[in-house]
Amino acid sequence: MRSSLRLLANPSTTSRYLTSGNPTGLTGLLTHPTPRAVLIIIYTATLSKLGHLPPHSSYRASTEALTNHRLSVVEQIKPAGWDEWHTRAQSILQKHPTLFKDPGLRGRYVRYEVEGKSYVTERLMDVHNPATDSEWNDERLQVEEEGPRDEGERDFRGLEDPRESDFPGLSEGAKEWVPEPKLEAGQIAEIEEKIGAGLVEEVIEVAEGELKLVDTMLKNKVWEELQDKPAPGQWEYFSRDQHTSGAQEPPK
After folding, report:
1. SS3 label, residue 76
2. Predicted model pTM
3. Closest by alpha carbon to 215, among 46, 65, 67, 70?
4. pLDDT tens for residues 167-191?
5. Which ranges in 15-110 belong to alpha helices (H)?
6. How far is CA 112 from CA 22, 33, 75, 242, 249, in A?
7. Cβ-count burial of 60 within 10 angstroms (0-12 exposed, 13-18 middle, 19+ buried)?
8. Distance CA 122, CA 11 (A)
């Protein structure tokens, strides 16, 4: 049912791909250009941060299980030609260690280093690097303002298929770079169905929130004993047989 929103936002039934930046059918939520890569980055960073919580933490255990499951779903669904592209992309990134790392360079791509691995995604939003930021602030991913902000950006956005290599003065690595193959609409729908948490853009927003929440949990040391002990019987009302006569008692 939720996937039908895509039909409203992408009326063409002949296209195999979703159009980046189009409305999803949910107010204020636009179609993400590289949902697979972004989810892998966020989930990997989340798992890394969760490793700083003690193993006995129930929050760590439950969040790790959910994050690993969703990461597995996303990693298993690859666009056509992804393996060949990945081999070539890693070769270019190793050859040009600083490629796409300059935060002052406005271009199509942005590079992340997470757990010793390099990822490159399209820069359609202003993004904090979850792997290198010392603190994950209250800032969320922000969609850029509509319209160009300067003459150079106007020229960039006017291109039908903008590429870093279309601009003089960029590095050889940028000229060699080829965009990551995109997931087909059916593959995105498969991810959404297997995760079962709405559109993939909603899944990304939830993942961003979880990544920030881990920092809050670490700061407050939620695994430690409560300073103020709960009153006797405070949690007993959660038992099934407290309010309804004849209700099934939880298994022991």
Report:
1. helix
2. 0.71
3. 46
4. 444 567 788 888 899 999 999 999 9
5. 35-50, 58-76, 82-95
6. 25, 16, 17, 51, 50
7. buried
8. 24
